[in-house]
Specification:
0% strand, mainly alpha, 201 residues, 78% helix, 7 helices
């Protein structure tokens, strides 16, 4: 009888405590990027998740901004054009690097030390000649690569700053009501005290 009485008291207390706490209404200003149903616990260690969140957030903003849409298309077009124009030169250097790697590896199997040294000397001279001939081309590719990295840095920085401003608006218009939380610890303590009393009996 005692256990039934305790159970009824506890059940009644819990019912009173959580009555009206199922308000799941959401502000319409919540960005779509936050509506992803994927559990954060499953992706908390994934860098890709955070990259995708910023991308989704930024895409949502830029879709409503013609200036950003034009900028995005310009960046995409520049990257496509860069890949197209550098493809031949990249392949050229890649093929030559493969040749020299293979040639140096093959030289290692020559057992005649004098012949081996002769071949290594000629190979080194040939590679140096190639490097001199292609210095301007290599410098241009290096400069383009640096510009790509610089563009990516500023592009990512811009996305963060723009989404941060939007997120601040979200924070200001969706701040949870603290009144729902006030006194919650006291309510927990009341239940704990009831349970403590029962455990001592």
């Amino acid at each position: 009888m005692k256990n039934i009485h305790f159970t009824l008291i506890l059940a009644l207390f819990l019912q009173i405590l959580f009555t009206g706490c199922d308000d799941n209404s959401e502000n319409n200003n919540t960005p779509n990027a936050f509506e992803d149903k994927t559990s954060l616990n499953n992706v908390i260690s994934s860098k890709r998740y955070y990259d995708d969140l910023i991308t989704q957030f930024y895409d949502e903003i830029s879709e409503k901004n013609e200036e950003l849409k034009k900028l995005n298309e310009t960046v995409k077009e520049l990257k496509r054009e860069t890949a197209k124009k550098t493809k031949e030169a990249d392949k050229f250097f890649e093929n030559n690097q493969k040749y020299y790697n293979a040639a140096y590896a093959r030289t290692e199997i020559i057992q005649d030390s004098i012949l081996k040294e002769t071949v290594l000397t000629k190979l080194s001279e040939n590679e140096n000649s190639f490097n001199i001939k292609t210095e301007q081309l290599a410098n241009l590719l290096s400069e383009i690569s640096q510009k790509q990295a610089e563009l990516n840095d500023y592009y990512n920085a811009m996305k963060i700053i723009i989404t941060m401003e939007q997120n601040t608006e979200y924070q200001n218009s969706n701040m949870p009501d603290t009144n729902k939380l006030k006194g919650l610890t006291e309510d927990y303590q009341k239940i704990i005290d009831i349970i403590k009393i029962q455990t001592k009996k």
